[in-house]
Amino acid sequence: MRIIFSLFLLCCLLTNGTAQQKSFEGVIDYQLEAKSKNPWISDVSIARLLAIASTMKVHIKQGNFRRESAKMLDINRTDSNRQLFMFKGIDTFYYNAPAVTEEEIPEISQSEKIVTIAGYNCKSLTIRSKNMITTYYYDPALFQDPAYSNPADKTSFTLFLKQTKAVYLKCVIETEQFVYTETAFRVAKTTVADAVFQLQSFPVAEFVFMSHLKLPVFKSGDEAEWVSYVQKSINADLVNKYVKIPKGEKAAQQTAEVLFVVLANGTVGEAEVINKKEIHAALAKEAVRIVKESFGWKPATVRGEKIDQLMMQKITFRIAEE
């Protein structure tokens, strides 16, 4: 009887301890890194495009998050159904409109392999969706109550939180274009004031990426300048040799679609013809030459910072009977 009572008492103590488990409150500092997967685009351009600084400080309390770096600030509060963020130098809070996509069931896998991060022994959880692979590293000792999250939220972070009930110490996001990594280097369990999560009185607007991006332009941006440059640069002998007018016709043409990158310094980097099967190889080579020798480009900018940007231009080789 005494043994049964002791076991009952132990179970009560364990249950009570679990019920009183407190969500992590404190500050975590992360090292940030962005790597381009496109050899034509620099890591610096990806970082500027995503507004990524070198480090980020995150305040956490009862499901509220404040993430701040030298490039941006975002605040996620439990009393709001949307996350607000702002870019340094722009006095507007933005939110992302809900994505209108087909219902997708992501693939979730866990690993028990231990990785030490900021002094904590972390397991990992990977979430694979159609366009993204996200891996979170976490120590269950850093408890985070998933009850604070929005039940309607289907983001990978919410899925991670529901699966692990923990704060992540490393996050690796991989897409076709880039790999983005956050790695904790300092974890401080400390009291965080509620005022940290208060929002300043700034306008709130839906985030539209293209309103922050200015694409490259050739010289003044007048299309006529580009057309004039191409016409003056085409080797007429190549056109006469490789563009043949079919019998019964009065003209013929071949068009090269050239994909290229305008670098942040305004020069043209790599270039290639993407419709090689539709054009003679000599003309494809000529189209690449014309694009790569074009000078006077104004590079793309995102929120005022120059970046590498992919572009596509058509070069048409035309011949007609005189």
TrEMBL record:
List, alphabetically, the SUPFAM superfamilies matched: TolA/TonB C-terminal domain (SSF74653)
Q: Which UniProt keywords apply?
A: Signal
Q: Where is the signal peptide?
A: 1-21
Q: Name one GO biological process term.
A: transmembrane transport
- Which Pfam families does this one have? TonB_C
This protein's source sits in the domain of life called Bacteria
Q: Where does the TonB C-terminal domain lie?
A: 255-319
Name by which UniProt lists this protein: TonB C-terminal domain-containing protein
